[in-house]
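Researcher: Good morning. I'm working through a list of sequences from a screen, and I'd like to move beyond sequence-only analysis. For each chain I'm collecting a predicted structure so we can compare shapes side by side. This is the next one on the list. No need for commentary yet; just the structure.
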Amino acid sequence: MSVSRRNIVAGAAGIGLTAAASLALSACSAEGDDDVAGADVIVVGAGLSGLCAARELVRQGKDTLVLEARDRVGGRMVRKSVIEGGWIDLGGQWIGPTQTNILSLADSLGIKRFDSYATGRTVVDFGGAVATIDGSFPPTSPLPSVPAADIAEANRVWDQFHSLAATANVDRPWLTPDAPALDAQTVASWVNAATNSEFARFVVKYWVLNQESGDPGATSMLFALTSYATGPDEDKPEQWLFEGGAGQIPERLAGELGNRILLQRPVFRIEQDTRGVTVTTSDGTYRADSVIVAVPPYLAGAIDYTPPLPARRIQFTQRAPMGSTIKCAAVYPTAWWRAKGLSGTTVSDRTVLLTADSSPASGTPGILTGFVIGPAAISLGEQSDDARKRAVISDLVAYFGDEAANPVQFIEMNWPAEKWTGGAYNAVLAPNTLTTYGPAMAQPVGRIHWAGTEISTKWTGYLEGAIHAGYTAAHEVLSRA
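Model: Good morning. Structure tokens for this chain:
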């Protein structure tokens, strides 16, 4: 298992409504059908998946309109400037060598990448004892709080998880061998039955928290296995970072699409008939031949559809809650931990589950990102801004020493508190969801098509998955013509 940081998918820095978009809006509010603004395709959601779907459609000659609830594009991709210089991504940021769509897209936009810093030892803090290890996690040598027998057991259980993941049917998870039994149990119930070692249990639960941002006690084992299979650690999904931050990708896509994007237009109704679809927002009504809904499943389920969606699709959205993640960034003048022989990566059972070095290649400024995930994110999110900062910095000091105590800047993104996202990294499926409702996840409903990283069969939950789902939906629409 690599110590990976699952990408929070789809988002950008705040982009205001353009003047051209404002002018377009003035023509979009009408009561009579003859006056309703029209397009060939409407895309609901200006996250990475929706923007890529729109870009592909425009390139294929389709008149396309994107409706976004926020006052910015990007969804779960957000970058923020750092006072010491540069940018930090508070959403998705890492990419790997087999993620061909995001690599090609970045190249086409002129965005360069650099190696994510991984040189040095990893801090492991388990049971209150701090140690450092070389190589990947789980370790192969004893830790101060973990005897050799538990290390061996942890590796055995992780190998068992890995072997099960190799059997997953990523295109149709419900056809995976023993799918009903795997889907009927949570990750916690599976690992608790697989071993009596608390450290071995921590290893598997840590992976689910880290990769899925979901509570292991509420996450389907089949979902976890399939998620691993769609984006395995051995494909190095966190090999590179983008110069200037991944958050500039949706910004540049928005620049290409121009006034085809209308911001602050939450969609609350979609009606379809034999002639097309009518999409209603708080500000106007729009007509199109087809619509792509590119928002997280639970938000898609909050839209009123006429005629109603099939029962399986309705029920699916009720069983796909968002994960819980608070992402923090502590900024220092330099990445001083590198001189101490540390990679900046942490594995822990404290409040801050993991950390990573998100500094630019130069190490100036130094940026440590920290992740509070699962139930801990909900608890910490209820505290004051100062209390959250103190809790995070306290853990950083425990991991790296007193030099971590006084960052020159502290930035956080509380994703569960984001109204138009509701959590991060992505949707986490409950037991018995894939086997019962899975076939309806991505299946079009008449003229309604679905996008978003959650329904991708490749790199689910990553930037790559968002793009793959966006392209897939765009090609479905094009095939109707």
